[in-house]
């Protein structure tokens, strides 16, 4: 079973991710049993069928997917996975921030894809609480090195809503 970092601890990943193969349509793909993270396109095409299964639901957002399109559905998702296809693609940070701050999503927010330990601190600040590291990367090393590169931060975030100058008193 795959592992991920959740709340700064290594845990087993009990979710399976459904992926559309090239040329496969959301309407034709078989829906597996159990806890599944569905691609955004499958969720849009088969929402009623997915909800009727009665199992926890997850969704995978790609950088081009609009958070606004699922804003009314957030209560259905036990986990939202945000894909980082490349290290240099930072759109997932904005997605996480919108989900937490604008839409009040309080479930598991998972960073997936090209996720490296030196991004964890910043990802956590925008609201991620679970991380599926890039293949071949050590979760233990990531926990040790990734969450505390700075002693204090000046700016506010989802993890520290009070600015530094107010904390200094």
Approximate shape: globular
Task: Give the uncertain stretches in residue-range form.
Answer: none
Order of helices and strands, N to C?
A: EEEEHEEHEHEHH
What do the pLDDT scores average to? 88
Radius of gyration: 17 Å
Distance between the termini: 47 Å
Query: What CATH architecture would you give?
Result: 3-Layer(aba) Sandwich
Helix content: 25-40%
Number of helices: 5
Annotated CATH topology: Rossmann fold
Q: Just give the CATH class.
A: Alpha Beta
Structural class: alpha/beta
Strand line-up of the largest beta sheet: 2-1-8-7-6-5-4-3
Q: How many beta-strand elements?
A: 8
User: What does the largest sheet look like?
Assistant: 8 strands, mixed
- Structural domain tally: 1
Strand content: 15-25%
Please provide a written account of the structure.
By secondary structure, this protein is an alpha/beta fold. It has a single domain, classed as Rossmann fold, CATH 3.40.50. Helix content is 26%, strand content 21%. The chain contains 5 helices and 8 strands; from the N terminus they run ββββαββαβαβαα. The protein has an 8-stranded mixed β-sheet with strand order 2-1-8-7-6-5-4-3. The longest helix is centred in the N-terminal third of the chain and has 13 residues. The mean pLDDT is 88.
């Amino acid at each position: 079973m795959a592992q991920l970092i959740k709340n700064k601890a290594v845990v087993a990943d009990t979710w399976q991710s459904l992926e559309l193969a090239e040329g496969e349509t959301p309407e034709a793909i078989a829906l597996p049993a159990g806890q599944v993270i569905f691609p955004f396109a499958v969720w849009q095409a088969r929402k009623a069928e997915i909800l009727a299964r009665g199992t926890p639901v997850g969704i995978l957002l790609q950088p081009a997917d609009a958070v606004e399109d699922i804003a009314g559905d957030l209560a259905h998702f036990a986990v939202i996975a945000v894909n980082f296809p490349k290290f240099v693609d930072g759109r997932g940070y904005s997605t996480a921030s919108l989900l937490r701050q604008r839409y009040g999503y309080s479930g598991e927010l998972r960073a997936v894809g090209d996720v490296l330990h030196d991004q964890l601190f910043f990802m956590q600040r925008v609201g991620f609480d679970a991380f599926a590291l890039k293949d071949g990367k050590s979760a233990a090393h990531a926990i040790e090195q990734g969450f505390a590169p700075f002693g204090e931060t000046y700016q506010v975030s989802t993890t520290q809503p009070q600015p530094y100058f107010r904390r200094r008193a």
